[in-house]
From TrEMBL:
Protein name (database record): DUF1330 domain-containing protein
Alphabetical list of InterPro entries matching this protein: Dimeric_a/b-barrel (IPR011008), DUF1330 (IPR010753)
Coiled-coil residue spans: none
Domain DUF1330, residue spans: 3-93
PANTHER family membership: BLR0684 PROTEIN (PTHR41521:SF4), PTHR41521
């Protein structure tokens, strides 16, 4: 089963957050992740709105977990936490 990595983000320090994006843009694809939405227009129907929304498709939940647990990504997480407020989840797809 595939998986979707879904992040909802409010960036508080754009310059610092760009450092996170640079690392994530390398690590996520190395683990089979493909970005299918990265920022862009959205409509919030319910819940808390965040200014930036990102979705990446992975071949499996395990592949997404491997990306998240990659030491390079964990270094990027430290940067992201200093430069944003965010929620991140991975959900298995039905395909």
């Amino acid at each position: 089963m595939g998986a979707l990595w879904i992040a909802h983000v409010d960036v508080t320090d754009a310059e610092k957050y760009a450092e996170y994006v640079e690392i994530a843009s390398i690590v996520i694809p190395e683990h089979g992740g493909t970005f299918i939405a990265r920022g862009g227009k959205f409509v919030q129907f319910e819940g808390r709105e965040r200014a930036r929304n990102v979705v990446a498709r992975f071949p499996s939940v395990e592949a997404a977990e491997a990306a998240y647990n990659d030491p390079r990504y964990q270094d990027a997480v430290k940067i992201a936490k200093m430069a944003s407020e965010r929620e991140l989840m991975v959900i298995e797809t039905t395909d």
